[in-house]
Write a structure and sequence with these properties.
By secondary structure, this protein is mainly α. Helix content is 77%, strand content 0%.
């Protein structure tokens, strides 16, 4: 819509239409959601920094922060990367569409497998695959259209778990009555990853004289570190038996 509508109706009206769509969808979500438990009136504030004294919770929060640091970099820079390596502007814009198309089943299917394998196990696997796709496909893609397109779809699918499963991982390391404030604390801390990831990538891009190599490596390392921290947390809580559902 952002590509097709501005020449016809102008950029301001394009954004107004997109805002209207977002308002309708969010309103429907608000009307359809239903609480499972009654209000917890004794749990305390929504931010609980004292919870960071628990190692398993702190490590989980750190892993989520690392995922947030990495996940939005490909979504933000894949289009400009496509233009940088010589793709047509239309094809470059389609790359971010492919990322989001891949993310649709990528946000639903991990939940299905998490019920059977455990959310931590699935997050470890998906974080590793995301890191490998960044290093093996995006870093080596150059102007190879097939490889760039494959990366967009594959990363879009596997990165979907970053949205759907990280809240479930928080729930695995706290009691149900504390989930609200633990989730709020984790998201408050992890939001700095979402805020800083793209500016850090921009700085690396500028210092690399426009080369995307350092940006790609940074994103891949952040995902790899997230995989390691998720693995450490899982081992700390459930031991080294990887057949245990967690």
């Amino acid at each position: 819509m952002i590509v097709k509508l501005p020449p016809r109706i102008g950029f301001p009206w394009t954004l107004r239409i997109i805002a209207l769509i977002c308002a309708v969808m969010c309103s429907l979500a608000h009307l359809l959601i239903q609480k499972r438990l009654p209000d917890n009136k004794v749990a305390g504030s929504s931010i609980d920094l004292k919870a960071l004294t628990e190692v398993k919770y702190t490590l989980t929060t750190l892993a989520v922060l690392l995922v947030e640091l990495a996940v939005f970099i490909p979504y933000t820079y894949i289009t400009s990367y496509g233009v940088y390596v010589g793709l047509s502007s239309q094809h470059a814009l389609e790359l971010v569409t492919l990322l989001n198309v891949g993310a649709v089943p990528g946000r639903a299917l991990p939940g299905y497998f998490a019920d059977r394998l455990g959310p931590f196990n699935v997050m470890i696997y998906t974080s590793l695959v995301c890191a490998l796709s960044i290093f093996c496909l995006w870093l080596t893609a150059s102007d190879n259209v097939a490889r760039i397109t494959a990366f967009s779809v594959i990363f879009g699918f596997w990165s979907g778990a970053a949205i759907s499963l990280t809240p479930i991982c928080v729930g695995q390391v706290c009691e149900t009555k504390d989930y609200g404030k633990r989730s709020g604390t984790t998201n408050s801390i992890a939001s700095f990853g979402a805020l800083l990831g793209i500016p850090i990538a921009a700085t690396l891009l500028r210092r690399g004289d426009g080369s995307y190599e350092n940006v790609i490596i940074f994103s891949g390392i952040a995902y790899l570190l997230a995989c390691i921290v998720f693995s450490i947390t899982r081992t700390l809580v459930k031991g080294a038996k990887w057949d245990v559902i967690f």
